[in-house]
Each structure stands twice: as structure tokens, then as C-alpha cells.
Design goal:
Radius of gyration: 15 Å
Largest sheet: 5 strands, mixed
Number of domains: 1
Structural class: alpha/beta
Strand content: 15-25%
CATH topology: Collagenase (Catalytic Domain)
CATH superfamily: Collagenase (Catalytic Domain)
CATH architecture: 3-Layer(aba) Sandwich
Order of helices and strands: EHEEEHEEEEEHHH
Shape: globular
Number of helices: 5
Strand order of the largest sheet: 2-1-5-9-8
Length: about 170
């Protein structure tokens, strides 16, 4: 199995960093799709002023349907604000035991919280959330261990306090 990172709407400036780190973490060949895939305007929810993560995943499934036979895990990367279901926002969304997911850097950027940009912090957050969504694609649930990368993050404090790696229990389940 391989991981395919797909830049959505615009270039995701840290895709190469994620490519290297995800390859190391999962021991899978990881590549960045060479093009930019546009998100259809109809996926924008005017009431929430955010993009629908579930529709984005459906689009990825349609666009990369030839990868569905388990050969690739496809992770969309965007800088747009996204939501799912009844949640006002999500950092990402991954299909449980599926092949498709999406991660947004919008709320992972320290500037969203009126802090100065910190490259290392942004990349660490993006890596945690990408690892988390790929964990879901590999059939992992949320973990009760707050330090585990699979713990649920209702806000950025939870993202920052968890580690970049799986706990022993989740690592065993992989």
C-alpha cells in the first residue's frame, strides 16, 4: 500500500515535509500528486462559511477511483476551513477503514490564533492531523490516551498536547 498526498485548491507548502515524515511513520511509499485538484464551489457552505469535508472526500473518491482497490491511501491537503456533520469545524476527516481523507491547515496555522507564524509548530500540527486521519483509514478509532496521535482534538490545545506517534495500544492495532 502507498500514500498519495493531493494538494487541494492551491499548493500546500508543507506537502514535501509530510511526504517524508508519513513515509517514515507508516513505512509506506508516500508521494505528492503532481497537480492541484480544485474543490467545486458547490462544496462551500454559505451558512457556515466553510467547506464540507465529506463532499471533498467524495470528490477524491471519484477523482481517484482507480486507487480504490487498496493500493493507495489518498489524503487531500488544503488550506481552507472545513467542517463535517454537526461539528462546526474539523482539522481533518478520514474514512474509517477506507482509502480517502482530508486535512486542513487552516486552523493549524498559529496565525489563526493571532500568533506569529511558526513553521515548526505548523508542520508538527499538520503531521499529527495527517497521521491521525491515516490512522482512521487504517481502521483505528479515537484513543482515550490523550498523548496518542489518535486522541480526539476538539480544539488546538488538544492537538498541541498529543504526540506525533501512536501509543502502544494503537500501534499494536495497526
Amino acid at each position: 500500500m502507498k500514500i498519495l498526498l493531493v494538494q487541494l485548491e492551491s499548493s500546500f507548502p508543507h506537502a514535501k515535509f509530510l511526504q517524508k515524515k508519513l513515509s517514515e511513520e507508516f513505512g509506506m511509499e508516500t508521494m505528492v500528486h503532481p497537480g492541484i485538484v480544485k474543490i467545486p464551489n458547490g462544496f462551500f457552505n454559505l451558512r457556515k462559511h466553510k467547506w464540507d469535508a465529506e463532499k471533498i472526500i467524495s470528490m477524491l473518491r471519484e477523482h481517484f477511483s482507480n486507487t480504490r482497490e487498496g493500493k493507495f491511501l489518498v489524503l487531500g491537503l488544503c488550506l481552507e476551513d472545513i467542517f463535517a456533520d454537526s461539528l462546526n469545524f474539523v482539522y481533518g476527516l478520514g474514512e474509517k477503514n477506507g482509502n480517502f481523507g482530508v486535512v486542513s491547515g487552516f486552523r493549524l496555522n498559529p496565525t489563526f490564533y493571532n500568533e506569529s507564524f511558526d513553521l515548526r509548530l505548523f508542520e508538527t500540527r499538520a503531521l499529527k492531523e495527517s497521521t491521525h486521519e491515516i490512522g482512521h483509514m487504517l481502521n483505528l478509532d479515537h484513543c482515550k490516551n490523550k498523548r496518542c496521535v489518535m486522541s480526539f482534538s476538539p480544539n488546538i490545545i488538544f492537538v498541541d498536547r498529543k504526540e506525533e506517534k501512536f501509543c502502544q495500544k494503537c500501534k499494536y492495532l495497526l
